[in-house]
Design goal:
The chain has 261 residues and is α/β, with parallel strands linked by helices. Helix content is 41%, strand content 14%. It has a seven-stranded parallel β-sheet with strand order 3-2-1-4-5-6-7, sandwiched between helices. β2, α2 and β3 form a beta-alpha-beta unit. NADP nicotinamide-adenine-dinucleotide phosphate (NAP) binds next to α1, β2 and α6.
Amino acid sequence: MTEWNSATTPDLTGKVIVVTGGSRGMGLAMAKGAHAAGATVIVLARDSARLATVVAEAEAAGARVQAIAADLADDAMRDDAFAQIIADHGRIDGLVNNAGVTKVAPSIDYALADLRRILEVNVTAVFACSQAAARAMPEGGSIVNTASLSSFIGQPERAAYVASKTAVLGLTRALAVEWGERGIRVNAIAPGYIETDLTGDLLRRGVLDRGAIEGRTPVRRFGRSDDVVGATLFLLSDASSFISGATLSIDGGWLANGYFR
Ligand code: NAP
């Protein structure tokens, strides 16, 4: 029962939380937030030099994070990474499936190898990481998938990404329904336009138009990686213990806005 002095803000004390793609952008912000909320945090990404920098920066700030280099689309590397986490910590209380990739190009000439790679990282790896984590997840476990605006709308030259992020919502609902009785909740966040390496590259190349995006966004700005942290920690924590199969948009109102002038 809620008491006057009981905490309902996200508290991850004692929880083991894995963040895929936790070496930069939103994943790094989530990892920092989870650490600040009391969790033992493990980040996964491919670039080991970048991961070493993350560990060193955390240590310099008096924090501790474990980093494991793995391409999550590679079955053997992914299995080894999760085996190491379970050997080191014994269980996984929370998983954020945040690693994701995109490529923007006309569908008429889109290379099938690129489509397959995007589906491998954004869909197959999300399922496989969820499986690996769920096998080691006690009751009360939580999985948070990073979906996107692209889960709800069509966008030109992004068919592979749109298909992958739409699939993430399907996985979120299906696994939530199947694993509820195991005491595992599965939810998604759907970020709008957030300034990271991924969008920075698209902005630089003129694929994205900052003015047009900010003009359509009711709060009139790009998102920042820190903007997704609160919702992610909430969904990981017991504060959301009756929420499963849900998707929370974090887009400054972009999706809600059907008004143009
Ligand atoms: P980002 O800055 O490009 O970071 C992506 C992260 O994923 C990095 O840590 C990257 O590390 C890791 N990664 C990529 N491929 C991987 C693989 N095969 N195995 C393991 N790690 C891998 O991207 P972001 O903008 O923060 O995006 C994070 C998530 O949010 C993605 O799923 C993206 O689709 C989604 N999203 C982004 C936006 C946005 O506006 N930025 C909006 C909606 C949704 P390595 O390169 O070292 O592997």
